[in-house]
Every structure is written in structure tokens, then in C-alpha cells.
Write a structure and sequence with these properties.
17% strand, alpha+beta, eight-stranded mixed beta sheet, single chain
């Protein structure tokens, strides 16, 4: 004997699933050292609230929310265009109205986030499995603490650092090119940042016009670039700061400068897993390195949380979408 659930019972069941997922994701975030309670419960409340909207209100409410989000993020024209599209598609072309359209978009976003999280976790796993002399089989994401072969300072500034980036007056990036090392639990890796994409957000300081001109190598009387804005900020990575690099390394003997630095200040020699060769990261044509000043442990925790969270949300949203299409929710 089969039991048919009413739409009211289906909504209650889905709200229970949303509540359970919020509690589970909050506990997962806590275990990973992240505070994600607000995010987990906000998603549950928004989706749960949408379940109880009368059918005739779903498209108008979704239209207004979409138009408002794009109005605030991209301007009034984008808000009007998106609002009109959501209303027309939701009202005339999709069972379930605008709520179903929003859920379909969210499911697509969830698939994208899960795919990116899996890719990042695979890069981290490849880094942890790196063995001297063996090719990594793809990009790796190796993290640790920054180690300067020699302290550098941006032109015109007395600021010792390992790496720096600035864009005075224009979008053209001025960055250091001096190699530096990353000290990881498995050993030392060398990074050649020339041509790399530098994502430095941890340490910043405002530049004066004189410092900006010095970074650009402008002499006295030379005009500043006509790009609008001012000299901007200098972002930099300090000695011992947390960082990671994404790329495909090659194995090479540790350079003499790194060997000498390790002998002078580190308890272990310059090497990787006991071998004298180390992974060297450098950009190549069509393949730029990515360097960021964040701890690998935090990045891995965030990727694990995103994998589980967006997988759960995507499945729930897909279930709601199907049930609304069948007229059961």
C-alpha cells in the first residue's frame, strides 16, 4: 500500500532536511576550524521560506530579489534586464515560476563550486604526494611559509619583504621578480615569481606619490601615467608569512644561495623529503603560476566545507525543483 504525501507534508519534510543540513554543516565547519553557522542557517531559512510562498507570489518575489541583487552589484540597467528576464522566463516558460528558475540557477552554481573544490583538493593531494624526481601529473598546490633567499625592498621604500605587488596609477602591475622559497613540512620548494599571478591581500600599505613614481622608475619631471586614480597600495609578503603556489614544478638541485641560507638559519638542509633536489615552480608560455598569501590549511578546510556544503545544497535544491515541477511542493 502506497502512501501519498500532501504538498504540506512534503514542505514540512523538506524544511526538516534543510534544518538537519544546516546543523550538520555548522558542525562540519566547526570541526574544520571555520565559523559557518550563519551561512548554513541563512541558506536553510531562505530556501525554506521560499517553499511556503504561494504559487502566484513566487515569480514576482524572485523577480524583485534578482533585480535588486543585480541593481546593487552591476547597476540599474543590469537590474532591469535581469528582472525582466526572470519574470518572463518564470511566468511564461517554466513550471514552478520564478522560484524554480532561481533553484535551477543555484543548482548550476552548486555544480560549478563542487567541481572547483574537487579540483583544488586534488591539487593539494598531488602536492602532499610529491616525490623527488617524479613528475606531479598535473598542477599542484603547495603551501608553507615564505623564506627569502635574500631580503628585497621595493624601489624607494625601506621595507624588507619576500614578494611585493603594486599598480601605481594604472592597472599595469609592478611586482618583484626575485626567487623565494616555500618551507613546507616535506621540505623546501623554490618559486620564481616572474610572470606569476600574485594574489597578495594580507599585508598592505598606502603608497605616497613619490613612492609610486619610484616603483615605476620615473625620473624627476617625468609625468605619471594617465590612468586615473592615485599611487594606490603596495601588497607584500613578509618573511615567514603563510603562502601557497599553484603550478607544475620541475625537479632541480637546490641553488647554492638557498643551500647557504638553509645552512645558516634552518635546522634542516635545503632539500625535499631527504633528497638534494627540490621542486621549482616557474611560469611557462600559456601557463602562469598563481601565488597567494594564505595558509594552505585554511584553503583546504574551506575547500572541504564548500565540497560538502554545495553538494548538499545542490541536491536539496534539485529535489525542490523536481517536486515543484510535479506540483508536490
Amino acid at each position: 500500500m502506497s502512501v501519498a504525501l500532501s504538498p504540506f507534508a512534503v514542505r514540512l519534510l523538506l524544511c526538516g532536511v534543510l534544518l538537519a543540513s544546516a546543523i550538520g554543516l555548522g558542525l562540519l565547519g566547526r570541526r574544520l576550524g571555520l565559523n559557518r553557522w550563519f551561512e548554513a542557517f541563512a541558506i536553510a531559512i531562505l530556501v525554506g521560506g521560499a517553499l511556503w510562498l504561494p504559487t502566484f507570489l513566487r515569480t514576482p518575489v524572485t523577480t524583485l530579489l534578482a533585480a535588486l541583487i543585480f541593481f546593487l552589484g552591476a547597476g540599474p540597467v543590469a537590474g532591469i534586464i535581469v528582472g525582466v528576464l526572470v519574470f518572463v522566463i518564470g511566468h511564461f516558460g517554466m513550471p514552478g515560476g520564478g522560484t524554480a528558475l532561481a533553484l535551477l540557477i543555484l543548482v548550476a552554481v552548486a555544480i560549478g563550486v563542487v567541481t572547483l573544490s574537487i579540483s583544488r583538493l586534488r591539487r593539494i593531494a598531488r602536492a602532499r604526494a610529491l616525490l623527488p624526481g617524479q613528475p606531479p601529473g598535473g598542477d599542484v598546490e603547495l603551501g608553507g611559509t615564505a623564506l627569502a633567499l635574500r631580503s628585497i625592498s621595493p624601489p624607494g621604500l625601506e621595507l624588507g619583504c619576500v614578494l611585493y605587488r603594486a599598480s601605481p596609477w594604472t592597472e599595469r602591475q609592478v611586482a618583484s621578480r626575485e626567487p623565494f622559497a616555500i618551507r613546507s613540512p616535506a621540505g623546501i620548494a623554490l618559486v620564481e615569481p616572474d610572470g606569476a599571478d600574485l594574489d597578495l591581500t594580507g599585508k598592505k600599505r598606502a603608497l605616497s606619490p613619490e613612492e609610486g613614481r619610484a616603483l615605476l622608475g620615473l625620473g624627476e619631471g617625468e609625468p605619471t601615467p594617465k590612468g586615473g586614480g592615485g599611487p594606490g597600495d603596495l601588497a607584500y609578503l613578509e618573511e615567514g608569512g603563510a603562502c601557497y603556489v599553484v603550478g607544475a614544478p620541475v625537479w632541480e638541485p637546490a641553488p647554492a644561495e638557498l643551500v647557504a641560507r638553509a645552512a645558516a638559519s634552518l635546522p634542516e638542509p635545503a632539500g625535499y623529503r631527504g633528497a638534494p633536489t627540490i621542486p621549482v615552480f616557474r611560469s611557462s608560455p600559456g601557463h602562469r603560476l598563481y601565488v597567494a598569501d594564505r595558509a594552505e590549511e585554511v584553503v583546504r578546510s574551506e575547500s572541504l566545507f564548500n565540497l560538502w556544503a554545495w553538494s548538499s545544497w545542490g541536491l536539496i535544491w534539485a529535489a525542490v525543483l523536481i517536486l515543484q515541477g510535479l506540483g508536490l511542493a
